[in-house]
Amino acid sequence: MIRPAWPVRFASAALAAASLALPVAATAQAYQCKAPARISVPPVKQDARTRQLPVTGYTMALSWSPEFCRTRQRSGSHATQCSGRNGRFGFIVHGFWPEGRSTWPQYCPTAQRPQPATVKRSFCMMPSASLAARQWAKHGSCMTRLPATYFKVTNILWSSYRWPDFDRISREDDLTVGRIREAFASANKGWEPSMVGVKLNRRGWLEELRLCYGKRFRPRVCPSRTFGPRDGVKAKIWRGM
Length: 241
Prior knowledge:
Layout: H1 7-20, E1 32-33, E2 57-64, H2 65-68, H3 79-82, E3 87-88, E4 91-99, H4 116-121, H5 129-138, H6 147-160, H7 166-169, H8 177-187, E5 196-200, E6 206-213, H9 224-227
Antiparallel strand pairs: 1-3, 2-4, 2-6, 5-6
Helix pairs in contact: 1-6
């Protein structure tokens, strides 16, 4: 299995990289969250084959929650994120993924599972215990030995981001994918638009930002499979409020 031998080094590298990304503007998401009093972490059924590959970089996938929850407000399986009982969310972490040269490693062998306390501490960035369990099993297992280290690194990077006012940007005339990239890059030191992937759904609404990192957790230019539509493509952002 090819994954970092020293979890402390893994976390330290992310902390060092995040410390270089000091905020340009002290903007933040104006959303709220409240973790449930009790969290149960479900088992994960492996749904694809194991791939053990050298890690060449990482992708932070940030889901735009208003769009995700647009049709899931009454879904029991997505209640903590979408019902409103635990707050309203802007961007949340879909996952932090290792990348390989032509594909990605996944489902590396592990007997470890995230502890409820770990998932609860991460709730505001990943408001779903089933999502957290799956992201560890499929992706984190190929990055480090311990779930707590995986979520610690993800939290370090997550906490370094500064958020443009995407509610306001959503109201701009002739909004494009390039404008979305530029907004994030302008608010975050060390980032360029070429390092920010964008995913739209089939109707042209923003689904995710995908932030591209090198092996040392420094922002890098996104590969074509992550970058998404060209800058000139029209885009829409669902505010959900």
